[in-house]
Write a structure and sequence with these properties.
about 35% helix, 11 helices, Isoleucyl-tRNA Synthetase, domain 2, alpha/beta, 2 domains, Rossmann fold, single chain, elongated
Length: about 375
Amino acid sequence: MWSRSWRLCNTRNGIFGRRYYKATLSLPETDFPLRVKTYEIESRVAPRCTTELYEWQQRHLTDAKEFVLHDGPPYANGRVHMGHFLNKVLKDIINRHKLLTGHRIRYVPGWDCHGLPIELKVYHENSAAMTPLQIRQSAQSFASETMQDQMSQFKSWGVMGDWDDSYMTMAPEYEAQQMKVFIDMVEAGLIYRSLKPVHWSPSSQTALAEAELEYQDDHKSQAVYVGFPVSKDSVSKSMSETLLQAEVVIWTTTPWTLPANRAVCFNKEFEYVLCQTDSDDGRTLVVAKSTLERLEETLGQKLHILESIPPGALEGLKCHHPLDPERVVPPFGSRPRHQRNRHGPRPYGSRTWIRRFLRVSSERVARG
């Protein structure tokens, strides 16, 4: 019956049948478009939530407590990635939270335009040989272009900040301010000149910061026992003649530092012994008594104690370097252990008294 009435209405009145049933429905009327023009909406709304909001709170919240978020600047060395997104969005959340809690915020974005990442980027993108001056000029141009590209991306994320007053570390006024701060630090006695071990890149021929290192996680260094032959010149009348044929045994988990060895460390509170192996050559070793059992297990042979070494008797003992017999290694008094004072800040900086007597050297050639 229903379908028949529809056909009759449609036949007699043409299109009137459809209009008739539409008129029986109570539908809301709206001005919202059927299709959302996202770009037009964002271009109209985004400035109100970012740039205009930042400028408004700077003008009107003059009596509010100021909250300054210092921007740890990203490198201007390439396109943005998820790390940039996480960094900027988290900072923006903090700023907006402070604004909602009654603060007047100040956030000046910046860019780090110095350092190896930018120079490497320029170096790899230019196959032709470049002089140091050309590299710096290209790096400056590349950093400027990258900064503008990254800024447009940060703005598109809705990050609120003083974009018109953003800084670059290569700007003359920024470098001048750095020099002023440095002068203040010198005058306050905070700056001194000294030596320190640094990470070196043979390919780039430059020092590397800790953050620029890439470690091979699956690499395992083999722990080794190494014998340092006793130098005959160091054995005094108060020392046993057996020491003439002995080797001071050290143990290290970083065998790659052995070429840098500069000393063998002893501890006056430890008990040391002269012992002999079961091997055919019957090697005589100087070891800490507490390590005998472990050393026997490692060597797979019995160690026979020949005599105990009185406390302090090893003072003045000198050894030959196992990789360079001409190099004489002085003693310093741990269990016998080798001292590589230029491999890392701990062995270098934690033994100030050793640095007074040991010459810090480097076997690095011109190209690393």
